[in-house]
């Protein structure tokens, strides 16, 4: 049956025919974003510009300053810096409170070296004066009269204490480098979830006796 107003030979359009909508703004794939990742145990800190990428789980926003501060401390570098200048390795480890202690120790050793060396020279001069004299064989040191034997004892004593403080100051310099190395190792020590401690009961057998109950500790370290 032909509908009213239909032109002969023209087919009626099918009203049930589905029309495919045209999307003028097709969805474009998201551009690849450069991410700075920092491993922390089994998780990762991910920095994506000034914002966090959507859908990322267990992330923390990092600024450029924070990212710059996160750096791996090298124990060898801390040791060499402390050998070059005491306290420099501690500054590299960001343990600035140790620097006054180190220089306080060197100040004590330096004061002892200067003081004992001055006393040593005074007794040395007095000893030479008394030994070469033709009279009573005595000499005055800081207003007090000493015999040759007393002057020789003071001469040897203060020289020994001066040399001992020189050796101790050199040893303290080495201890300063060792401390910087150990502190650097501790700061880079892995404290992630890959480390664990298991405590369980155990039996310990002693030679010639029965087994003794005890506690067994098992450490699981990161490989």
From TrEMBL:
Region (Disordered): 1-29
A Pfam family that the UniProt record links to this protein: DUF5683
InterPro entries registered for this protein in UniProt: DUF5683
Domain DUF5683: 72-220
Residue stretches of biased makeup (Basic and acidic residues): 16-26
Higher taxonomy: Bacteria, Pseudomonadati, Bacteroidota, Cytophagia, Cytophagales
Source organism per UniProt: Nibrella saemangeumensis
Protein name, entry field: DUF5683 domain-containing protein
